[in-house]
Amino acid sequence: MKRMIGRALIFAAATLAVLFVGDWAVLRVRITHQTGFSTVRVDHFLAESMKGNKEEYYFTGTTNQTCVRSIFPHVSDAPCWWLRRHTTQWE
Predict the structure, then answer these.
(1) How many folded domains does the chain comprise?
(2) Are the C-beta atoms of 33 and 10 separated by less than 8 Å?
(3) Most buried of the four, 2, 25, 52, 82, by CB within 10 Å?
(4) Structural domain of residue 64, as residue ranges?
(5) Mean pLDDT, to the nearest integer, of 25-35?
């Protein structure tokens, strides 16, 4: 039983590694064709602690954030599919 679990973990890790490398290669091709990046409008909020365990929220602005058109985050940018679903960021 331990051998099967070990093999399954190795297979899952190898599959993830191949998927990551393939995603990176596709992104490199897209970057050379200038279609690898996009922008998403993101709203920023600040949460400030007040007396009596209360919080006050402040809207600090809206910015366009760069994202990569891939499955995984690359080049220190979030993937566009994730960023489009999380357009509100808290500081």
Answers:
(1) 1
(2) no
(3) 82
(4) 2-90
(5) 95
Could you give the CA distance from residue 55 to residue 20 in angstroms, rounded to a whole number?
40
Beta strands across the sheet bearing 54-68: 54-68, 37-50, 88-90
Cβ neighbours of residue 30 under 8 Å, at least 6 residues apart?
A: 36, 69
Tokens linked to 70: 């891939």
What totals of helices (H) and strands (E) does the chain contain, helices first? Answer: 2, 3
DSSP H or E run through 57: strand 54-68
Upper half-sphere CA count for residue 75 (Cβ side, 13 Å)? 17
CB 20 within 8 A of CB 50: no
Instruction: Characterize the bridge pairing of strands 88-90 and 54-68.
Output: unpaired
Question: Which of the four pLDDT bands, split at 50, 70 and 90, describes residue 30?
Answer: very high
Q: CA torsion sign, 43 to 49 to 54 to 56?
A: negative
